[in-house]
Specification:
The complex is a heterotetramer, with 2 copies of chain A and 2 copies of chain B. By secondary structure, chain A is α+β, with helices and mostly antiparallel strands. Chain A is built from 11 helices and 10 strands. In chain A, the strands form 3 sheets. Chain A has a 4-stranded mixed sheet. Chain A has a 4-stranded antiparallel sheet with strand order 2-3-7-6, with no helix packed on it. By secondary structure, chain B is α+β, with helices and mostly antiparallel strands. The chains are: A alpha+beta, B alpha+beta.
C-alpha cells in the first residue's frame, strides 16, 4: 500500500491549484440568471484549454486529448472540491451522453455534439424513466413509429432533470414493439424545441423547484429523423446500460464534508445550556457514523486503485451506492435529532440551521436510496452479480 | 379484564374518520398549505360540533367528560388524515392544564373551547428544551421574554404559556407587546411560531402549577404519540395498497418478497406500539402514577418506529412516493416533525430513566 | 378499557395463591433424577384435583371438566409465575398432542392417552421436522408403507426434544407417496421402544445437553398398526397445523422478567469503578428495550382481550413471535455488552454472571428466531394473511 | 497512489490459507476444543516456519520485518479459519510492545518468538477495563495482584503484563507465586484465564512505557478487527454457499429474494469494513499519528457489523446453522468474544471521541 501520489502527480496537483487560484470562476449563480450561460462557456473553454475539463476527449471532438489517467482525475476532483469551486457543469450531457457517444456514436454524431456539450453551449436532459417504468426500466412504453425516414415519438418521461432548460434530450424509446422487451429499444437524440414536446415541472417532497428540480416530459407525435439513433436500432438497452453505469458511479456522494458539517453543528447546537456534542448518547451515534464514513472513504480509494490496476473489483464494486445512500440518510437523521424541536425548520425560516441543509439532505438522500435503482434493485444486483446467487425463477404463466 | 377500545370508542373513531375523509380529504389539506396558517377555523368548528374539542372537558363546560384514551383515538384519526388543527394544544393540553386550576375565567375559557368559539395557542417548549436564549419571566402580572416553537398561535384567542416548571400564564393573543413570527417546518399541517412578549398583561397567572404542567405535558406526549401512530398507520395502508397495484417486471410489486417483508416489518412494529399508546392513555385516568414513564416511552418509541415506517413506506412507493403529487410526504413530514415537538426520543428516554431513579447509579 | 379482573376472578386468584402456598411442589429438579417421575405424577394429579391443570379437559378423559375461561388461565399463569413454581410439565404431550386428540382423535385414542399424558405418566415427543424439511415442512420424506394392517416407517426426524426420555412420539409421515405434497401425510402415534427406532442427541451451538436438548430420531422399518393414525389417513398436514398453532403461541416468551434481570445486572456490573447503569449510552439502550418490552406486554393483553371478546385479532395476532424473538435477542445483546470482556464467559466458569443465563438466552433467542418457522416465513405469513399481499407467483417449470 | 494489498501480500494470504485449510481444517479445530487449552503448539511451530510469528520482528531477530498490514492479512486468515493460536498476543502485541524497549533479554525473547520456540501470554485487560477488583502493582522488581481475562497463559513461556497505563513487566510463566484459572468463554478457539500474582519475580520491568502500551493496544485492536473480519467473511461465504445448495419449496433458498437480500446486506457491510481495517493497519506504520483513532473505529465498527453478520448468516442456514455439527458456531462465537476482548464498541467509540477532544464539549 502506497498512498503517496509521487512527484509527477504532486506537480500536477500544484498546477491545478495555482490555476484555480489565478482564475476566478463563476460561482454558484442561479443557472437561470442572465449572462450566466456565456460566462459558463468561457469558463469551461478555459478549463479545456488547460486540460481540466474534457481532459481525455480527443482533440478532434473538442477535448484536450490527454491519455486517461485516473489519478489526475482524482487530483482534479480533490482540488476543485478543496477550493470549493464547481466544475461548472453538472448536467447529464458531459457525464452520460458524451461517454456514450464516444463508445457507440457515429463519427458524425461525435463531431457534431461532443464539443458544444463539453463547452456548455448545449444542455442535455435524459429521457429514460417513465411513470410505469421505474425499477423495471426496460418495460418502457414511449413509442417511436416509423414514418418514412423519421420516427414519430409518443409517450411520457419522468424524473427528467433540467428538461426545462435543456436544448437537447437523449431518450430511450420503443422502436420495435413486437421484439422482446430488452431488444425493442432505441437510443435517440432530439432537440427539445421539436413540436409536440411539453415539459411540466415535477414537484418533489422536498418542495424544491430550484436547480435540482425534476420534470415530466410529454411527447405527442414528435418527429425525429431516424439518423438520430445512436448505435444500432433496437440496441438502446445495451447502450443505455453504458450510461447507467456512469450514473451509478456519479451517485456516490462522499460523506466526509457532511460529517465535518455535522460535527460543527453538534458543537454549536445547545439545548438547556448543554451542547449536543456534550451528550454521550449523541456522541456515540456520531462516532458510529464517523467509522462508517471513514470506511466508505477508504473503500472509494480501494475502488480507484482497482481501476488503476485494471483489476475487477468484484462484489466490492457493487455495494458503494447502497451503503453511501443509507449513510447519508443516517447522518442527516442525527443532525435533525440534535436540533430537537428546531430540527424540522425549513424553507428559509428564521432560526433554520445551515440554511436548511439537513432537511434537504435528508430528503435528497432518501431520494437517492430510491433513485437510480431502488435499494431493492441494488440488493438484487449485489446478490446475483456479486455473490452469484440465482435470479428469482420466472413466474409460471397464470 | 378488557384491554382494548370499547364500542363507543370504535364509534367515535368511525364518526371522526368518516367526517375527515368527507370534509378534510387530502385535497383540502393541500389547499390549506397555501394559507398563512393551516389551522382552518371551519375544521375547528366542525370538530366542536362532533364533540371533539370538549372531549376532555366536564359536562358543566359543555364537554363530554371522556378520558385521554378517547382523546387519543381522536388524535390518532387526526394523524391518520393529517388534519391541520389545534386539537393537541387546545383540546388536549390546555384543558388538562386548566381544568384543575382556580381562576374566575377558566369556566368561560373551557366552555369556549368545548363550543368551538375559542382556540388557544400553547407556548410550553421551554419546559423541556431551552434554545436560542428563550425564556419567560412573570412579574406583577406581566410576562416578558421569548418562547420558541409555540403552536397554533395564528388565529388563537388566548395563549397558554409556561414560564419554567411551575408557573403558567394565560394571555390574550391580541394583548399589547406580543410579537409572533411563523417558523415554517417541513410539516405544512402544523402551525409553529416564535413568540416574543414585552411586558404583556396576563389574563391569569398560576403559581405552584408544576402538577398541572406535568399532567399537561404527559397528556400532550401521549396524544402526540397517538397522532403519529395514526400517521404511521396511514402510510402503511398506502404502501400496501400501492404495492398491490403497481406492476413492475410483469408482477405487482407486492408479490416480491422484499416488498412484502418491508410491509411485514412495518406492521409488526406498529401493532404493539398501538397497545403501548392505548395503555399509556388509559393510565392517565386509571393509574396516574404510571403515566409519566409511559408518556415518555410511548412518544419515544412511536418516534423511533415512525422514522422507520415513514422512510420504508416511501421506499415501497419508489420514485412516485418522493413526488409532491402523491401526497405521501404530508404524513412523512407530520411524523418527522412530531419527533422533536415534545422532546426528542433521546431526551424522553433519559427522562424515563430519571423517573425510575436510574440516572442516580454510580 | 377495564383492567380489573372483577371480584369473582380476584377470588379465584386468591384460591390459586393459597393453594400454591400450602402445597410445596417439586422444584426445578433434573428431569432425569430418580424418584422425580413419581413426585411429578403426584403433583400433577393434585393440580388436576383442584382444577389448576387439565382444567377444561372433560372428566371422562381425566381432566377437571371446567368450562374454558381464558381469564382463569391468565390468572393461573400469573400466579404460578409469581410464585416461581413450574407447572411441572413442559413437554409437548399436554401442550400439543392433547389439544389435537381432543379435536381430531377417536374416542378410543382420547380415553387411552389423554389422562396419562396430563398426569405425566407418559412423556411424548414430536416428530415433525426433518433435515431436508425445515421451513417447508410439508416436503417431509419419512415414509410409512402399508404392510397388512400395519405401516412400516423409515426415515429421519430432527429437532425432537425429549426424544431421549419419551415413551411415545406423535409423528408426521408420508403415507401416500403419489399424492400432492400436502395431502399425502398422516399423523401417527407410536411407542418409542418399538424396534427400529434410534435416538441420537443433537448438540446445538449452545452446547446444551440438558433439559432443553434436541435429538435426531432414525426410523428403520418401524412397525406400527394403522389404527394408530389420528384423524383420517392423508389428513396429517391439516391436523398438524392445529398443533403448530398451539406451538406458535407457546413460543411467545414474555420479556418482563428478563428486563428486570437486566436492570439488576446493569446496577451491579461495574467497569473502571462505574456501573453500567451510570453509562448514558447503555441506559439509553435499556430504555429503548424497556419501551419495546412494555409494548409487547400490552400487546399480549390486547390479544387476550380479543380472545375473550371472541374478536379476530387480524394482523396484530400474527406479529407477536417475530417481535418477541428479536426483542429477547436484543435484550441479551445489551446484557452481554455491559459485561464487556466478561460477557462471553460461559459453561459455569468462575466470574460468570447470572449462571451464564445471558449467553444461553442469546443462543436460545436466536434459535427461536429461526425455529418454529424462520423470521422469513413469519414475514411471509404476516404480509400474505395479515396484509392480504399476494403470494409469490409459482415458478415456471424449468 | 495504491490503496490495496500487494502481490506479496496476496501471496502471503494464499500461502497461509492453503496451509490452514490443509493442516488446521475445522475438524482439527473441533478436536482441539476438547483440550485444556486450544492453542496447539504444533500450529504455532508451523506458523513460525511460515514466517508468521516473526512477521513484525526485525531481521536480526529472525523476523521478516513486515508491517502491521501484513500481520493483519495473517490475522484475517486465522480468523477466517477460526484457528486457535496465540498469534494476536505473541506475534502482534508482544513484539509491538517490546521491540522498542530496552532490556538485555529482549533480543532473546523476540528471536524465540520468531523461531517459534517461545510463546507469550498477555495480561493487559486492566489498561482499559478494571473489573472484580483486578489490578497489579510492581515494587522492588516483584509484581502482585490480579489480572482478569489474560490470554494464552496456558503453555506460555513468558507473560507480558501491563500494570497501569505506563508500566510493563515480563514474568516467567513458571515463576513462583503465579496462579491461573482458565475462564471458559463461548469461544472454544481462544484461551482466556484469570491470573493471580503474589510477589512474583519479574524477568523485566519497564517504566514510562505508555507509548509502548498504547502502540501495543492499537496493533492488537487492528489485528483483532482483522481476525473478526476474516471470521465474518467465512460466515458469509458459508451462508451464500448453503443458500445455493439448500432446497425448500422446490427451489434453492438462495433464489428467494429475502435470502438474497440478507446476503447482499452482509457483504455490503463487509467490503467497506475491509478497507477501514486495511487503512488502519497501513496507518500504523505510515501515518502513526492517525492510528489511535483508526484502531478504535476499525475494531468498534467490525464488532458492530460482526454481530449482525454472525446472526444473519446463522439465520440463512435455518435450524441447521444452530447445530453444533454444522460448525458455524465456531465463527459465531469467535466474533462474539472479539466484541469485548480489547474494549467493547461503546467503550471504543467514547475513546475515539476523547482522542478528538469531543468529550470536552460543554
Amino acid at each position: 500500500m502506497d498512498l503517496s501520489y509521487g512527484q509527477k502527480y504532486e506537480e500536477f496537483r500544484m498546477e491545478v491549484r495555482s490555476f484555480l487560484e489565478e482564475n476566478k470562476p463563476l460561482q454558484s449563480e442561479s443557472p437561470l440568471s442572465s449572462g450566466r450561460r456565456q460566462r459558463l462557456v468561457e469558463w469551461l473553454s478555459l478549463q479545456i484549454e488547460h486540460g481540466y475539463w474534457a481532459r481525455t476527449i480527443p482533440k478532434k471532438y473538442g477535448g484536450y486529448g490527454a491519455e486517461p489517467d485516473l489519478l489526475e482525475t482524482v487530483i482534479m476532483d480533490e482540488e476543485f472540491n478543496r477550493a470549493g469551486i464547481p466544475r461548472g457543469m453538472s448536467s447529464q450531457g458531459p457525464s452520460m451522453l458524451v461517454p456514450t457517444l464516444l463508445e457507440h456514436g457515429s463519427e458524425e454524431q461525435r463531431l457534431r455534439w461532443i464539443s458544444p456539450t463539453m463547452r456548455g453551449e448545449i444542455t442535455w436532459c435524459q429521457g429514460y424513466s417513465e411513470p410505469g417504468s421505474g425499477s423495471d426500466l426496460a418495460s418502457l412504453q414511449t413509442s417511436a413509429k416509423e414514418d418514412g425516414d423519421d420516427f414519430l415519438i409518443s409517450g411520457q418521461k419522468i424524473w427528467t432533470s433540467t428538461a426545462d432548460r435543456s436544448q437537447m434530450i437523449f431518450i430511450l424509446v420503443r422502436t420495435e414493439p413486437d421484439a422482446p422487451k430488452h431488444s425493442g429499444i432505441s437510443y435517440i437524440l432530439l432537440p427539445m424545441d421539436t413540436p409536440g414536446i411539453e415539459v411540466q415541472p415535477l414537484r418533489t417532497m422536498s418542495g424544491d423547484l430550484g436547480e435540482n428540480s425534476f420534470n415530466q416530459v410529454f411527447f405527442t407525435d414528435v418527429r425525429v429523423p431516424q439518423v438520430n439513433v445512436v448505435g444500432k436500432r433496437g440496441e438502446g438497452w445495451r447502450i443505455a446500460n453504458t450510461t447507467l453505469k456512469h450514473e451509478r458511479n456519479s451517485l456516490n456522494a462522499n460523506s466526509e464534508g457532511t460529517m465535518i458539517k455535522l460535527m460543527r453543528l453538534m458543537e454549536r447546537e445547545t439545548c438547556n445550556g448543554v451542547s449536543a456534542m456534550a451528550s454521550p448518547v449523541f456522541r456515540d451515534r456520531l462516532m458510529q457514523l464517523q467509522a462508517r464514513s471513514m470506511a466508505m472513504k477508504f473503500h472509494a480509494m480501494r475502488m480507484v486503485t482497482c481501476s488503476l490496476r485494471d483489476e475487477a473489483p468484484g462484489v466490492a464494486g457493487l455495494v458503494t451506492k447502497l451503503r453511501n445512500c443509507q449513510l447519508n440518510f443516517d447522518i442527516s437523521s442525527l443532525a435533525i435529532d440534535v436540533m430537537g424541536e428546531l430540527g424540522a425548520l425549513y424553507d428559509h425560516t428564521p432560526y433554520e440551521r445551515d440554511l436548511g441543509y439537513w432537511q434537504a439532505h435528508s430528503f435528497f438522500s432518501l431520494g437517492l436510496i430510491i433513485g437510480g435503482g431502488t435499494a431493492q434493485i441494488q440488493k438484487n444486483i449485489i446478490s446475483e452479480r456479486g455473490l452469484g446467487m440465482p435470479r428469482e425463477p420466472k413466474p409460471a404463466k397464470a | 379484564m378488557d384491554f382494548g377500545i370499547s364500542e363507543d370508542q370504535i364509534l367515535l373513531e368511525e364518526t371522526l374518520r368518516s367526517f375527515l375523509s368527507d370534509r378534510v380529504p387530502i385535497e383540502r389539506v393541500r389547499e390549506l398549505r397555501h394559507e398563512d396558517c393551516p389551522n382552518d377555523p371551519e375544521i375547528w368548528q366542525s370538530l366542536a360540533e362532533l364533540g371533539m374539542t370538549g372531549i376532555l372537558l366536564p359536562e358543566q363546560s359543555g364537554g363530554s367528560d371522556l378520558g385521554l384514551l378517547d382523546a387519543c383515538i381522536a388524535a390518532q384519526s387526526l394523524g391518520h388524515a393529517v388534519t391541520p388543527t389545534p386539537f393537541l394544544g387546545s383540546a388536549v393540553m390546555v384543558p388538562t392544564a386548566l381544568k384543575n386550576l382556580d381562576h374566575p375565567e377558566i369556566g368561560t375559557w373551557l366552555s369556549g373551547i368545548a363550543s368551538g368559539e375559542l382556540r388557544f395557542g400553547v407556548a410550553i417548549t421551554e419546559t423541556f428544551s431551552v434554545r436560542e436564549g428563550a425564556g419567560l419571566t412573570i412579574s406583577g402580572g406581566k410576562i416578558s421574554g421569548k418562547a420558541m416553537m409555540s403552536w397554533d398561535i395564528c388565529g388563537a384567542d388566548f395563549i397558554l404559556i409556561a414560564s419554567g416548571q411551575d408557573r403558567l400564564a394565560v394571555v390574550r393573543s391580541d394583548a399589547e407587546g406580543i410579537g409572533q413570527t411563523r417558523l415554517a417546518t417541513t410539516d405544512e399541517t402544523r402551525c409553529t411560531s416564535e413568540l416574543t412578549l414585552e411586558n404583556v398583561e396576563c389574563a391569569a397567572t398560576f403559581e405552584n402549577a408544576s402538577e398541572s404542567i406535568s399532567r399537561m405535558l404527559d397528556a400532550g406526549r401521549i396524544a402526540l404519540a397517538a397522532d403519529c401512530l395514526g400517521a404511521c398507520e396511514a402510510m402503511i395502508e398506502q404502501a400496501v395498497a400501492y404495492a398491490k397495484e403497481r406492476k413492475q417486471f410483469e408482477r405487482v410489486i407486492g408479490s416480491f418478497q422484499a416488498v412484502k417483508h418491508m410491509c411485514a416489518e412495518m406492521i409488526s412494529e406498529l401493532e404493539p406500539a398501538r397497545a403501548l399508546v392505548w395503555y399509556a392513555a388509559h393510565s392517565f385516568d386509571a393509574v396516574p402514577n404510571e403515566t409519566p414513564l409511559l408518556a415518555c416511552h410511548a412518544l419515544s418509541h412511536v418516534s423511533e418506529i415512525g422514522r422507520e415506517i415513514a422512510s420504508v413506506s416511501t421506499q415501497v412507493h419508489g420514485g412516485i412516493g418522493w413526488t409532491d403529487e402523491q401526497n405521501l410526504h404530508f404524513w412523512f413530514k407530520r411524523i418527522g416533525v412530531a419527533r422533536g415537538l415534545l422532546g426528542g426520543p433521546q431526551w424522553l428516554r433519559e427522562r424515563a430513566a430519571t423517573l425510575q431513579g436510574l440516572d442516580k447509579a454510580s
